[in-house]
Request: fold
Amino acid sequence: MAGSTSVPCPTCGKNVEWTQASPWRPFCSERCRLIDLGEWLDEGHRIPDKPADDQGAPWDPDQAH
Ligand SMILES: [Zn+2]
Reply:
């Protein structure tokens, strides 16, 4: 069999060796793993304690036009 297997990192596409040298596999790094996890969490259940950015915008209708 081939000596080592590598997989593309799901986040950035970088090749990751599927060995014990890559503790974050299939991700290339902890950062990519957290990014992917964050996206998953964001889709699963949105964090409610953050105010929507599209409301309360600092623009005054009286000054528009
Ligand atoms: Zn990566």
